[in-house]
Automatic annotation (TrEMBL):
SUPFAM superfamilies referenced in this protein's UniProt entry, alphabetically: P-loop containing nucleoside triphosphate hydrolases
Keyword hit for Nucleotide-binding: yes
This protein's name: ABC-2 type transport system ATP-binding protein
UniProt keyword Nucleotide-binding present: yes
Keywords of this entry: ATP-binding, Nucleotide-binding, Transport
Organism, scientific name: Marinobacter persicus
Domain ABC transporter intervals: 5-234
GO MF entries: ATP binding; ATP hydrolysis activity
UniProt cross-references to InterPro entries, sorted A to Z: AAA+_ATPase (IPR003593), ABC_transporter-like_ATP-bd (IPR003439), ABC_transporter-like_CS (IPR017871), ABC_transporter_ATP-binding (IPR050763), P-loop_NTPase (IPR027417)
Amino acid sequence: MQPDISVKHLNKVYGGGFQALKDVNLEIYPGEIFALLGPNGAGKTTLISIICGIVNKTDGEIRAAGHNIVTDYRSAREAIGLVPQELHTDAFERVWDAVSFSRGLFGKPPKPSHIEKVLKDLSLWDKRNNRIMSLSGGMKRRVMIAKALSHEPRILFLDEPTAGVDVELRRDMWEMVRKLRENGTTIILTTHYIEEAEEMADRIGVIREGEIILVEEKNQLMSKLGKKELRLQLQNPLDKVPGELTLEPVELSEDGYELIYTFDAQEQQAGVARLLRTLGELDIEYRDLQTRESSLEEIFVGLVHE
Ligand SMILES: Nc1ncnc2c1ncn2[C@@H]1O[C@H](COP(=O)(O)OP(=O)(O)O)[C@@H](O)[C@H]1O
Ligand SMILES: [Mg+2]
């Protein structure tokens, strides 16, 4: 399958000499939700801005929907809708007019049926005659998305779509993004909220100090780098981990009532069976046991520390 976005050996050095992106390579495929996850200042907005033709690259080759973003700028840009990090809308305009106007900027003929669909998809239909300044923050953000979708792009970039948005609106936004994907739109979002990447993405790219340090399917990332933990609540406390159990990395809680065994999520369960068998042989009884998997947050923190 041809990627919707292809980035090869991209470098960006800003005017002052600061290198914001270092040999970035990335491919994003039709219909996926890709989350670019990284702390503030990592280079997320720079990367998106270069792909969308707002910031010039220093070197590298970029294609959007198969079009070179420099030599075939118009076709490349037409395939892309961008919702920038900083929201700026014309406060006095009405929703319908603002969205229709955006379409016109791409030289596309009017298509009221499309504008109607976009406004309905984003639950803005009832507000179509309202002035933008009369809308809530969440609704303004939706108008920005509607504008970005007005010219029927196949690729949508959302730069920090929920930064500074309260939890409820964030859930709304996630719901909306999923709906857009159902229409076949390829979605690339940047975020510094791990929870957002975990909730939304099919694939996750982690960027740190201008370098993509990892790109992985979310589920694989979770099972590959994740840990599982088995906790056993003991009937009687122990004062130390019995020597027979040291084959497995087992820890004892401070009060001696809990044994904690941590293992790689992808590993076979042989260790667990062996541990339980040994406990039986030692006549160590337990009242209860639980297992849990590490969250993306724990994986991410582990990665950035490495
Ligand atoms: N116009 C600019 N000139 C010089 N440095 C910049 C400019 N824009 C961004 N930077 C720097 O590039 C780095 C990456 O910024 P940015 O892409 O906005 O990161 P992010 O979106 O991940 O928070 C930051 O250190 C930032 O200060
Ligand atoms: Mg940014």
